[in-house]
Amino acid sequence: MSKRDYYEVLGVSKTASEDEIKKAFRKAAVKYHPDKEGGDEAKFKEVNEAYEVLKDKQKRQRYDQFGHAGVGGAAGGGFGGNPFEGFGGFGGQNVQFDFGGDGGMFGDIFSQFFGGGATGSRGGARRGRDVETNVTLSFEEAVFGTEKNLNITLDAECEHCHGDGVEPGHSLKTCEDCKGSGQQTRVMNSIFGQIQQAVTCPTCHGRGKIPEQNCSVCGGKGTTRQRQEITVKIPAGIDDGATIRLHGRGEAVQGGPRGDLYVHIRVKAHKKFTREGDIILSEEHISMVDAALGTEIDVETVDGTVRMKIPAGTQSGTDFKLSDHGVPHLRNDERGPHIVGVIVDTPTKLSKKQRELLEQFDGARRRGLFS
Question: What is residue 94's predicted lDDT score, i.e. its pLDDT?
Fold first, then answer.
């Protein structure tokens, strides 16, 4: 489904002033606010998206020139700048990339939003602790994707007893404290009298069994501290601040599933490029002669050098779009554009001959010899 024109969304003309755009946004936001009776969350998001672009002078200029492609499809879909409280949206990539338990092939990376982190699974079973770590990527690694090897020390299954906590050659026996039920009943005094409460047996930790002889390596815990190397696949197009969850790659625990590993992504700034959603932005400087007469220049992109034509009469601040040289979309194989802003340099030091030529040009212009 194609996006509506942002000016149409706010109900303003393309020549609207900043103040008119702001007033139109506030009116529409109040009208469609989800917390209001009769509000419309979808339209409220659409209004926010339009305002995010049109309130920004540079984004508005690119939108006027290139349409939605010039602003990365709503600048990543964030809801920044919303002056109303009580409603929040997920902006940028504040989402959880949920990878399979093998840490390799990943499934649907948009299956869940960042959250979770519970220490127990359904039914009250013990669960291993979640672990967090950071990975720093270069700008290019974030654009094209990569693999990173993580070396992490965590509680892992004891290799000597294979997690049972039992010394090899021995077996488990029924816990005498809970008689194998894994639970104990405690009587608590309250203002309503005595209350019975079932709690996990502290002796067997809910297993109902205990080792005849504890493992000589882990002491019966079933886990030991181990240094592990984990390979993480970083998807192309990931952005700074995103989080990848590796299911079941956190710490182990006896009698329950492993926790998860959360990998927080940090992307280093590039010396030349900046990024807005799926758009890459850069600037190139040309002389005023090249701007007047037209030329071709070499533009650095993440794909290598691209030859770009500058038409005669180009003004400083003009943007040019290099299609399919931006950031890949996380949901498909398409790529955003690379937008090049051209800056026309005015010379600060002129030779005598250069000054004479410019004065001759200016004199001819004043006499109306050319437009």
Answer: 42
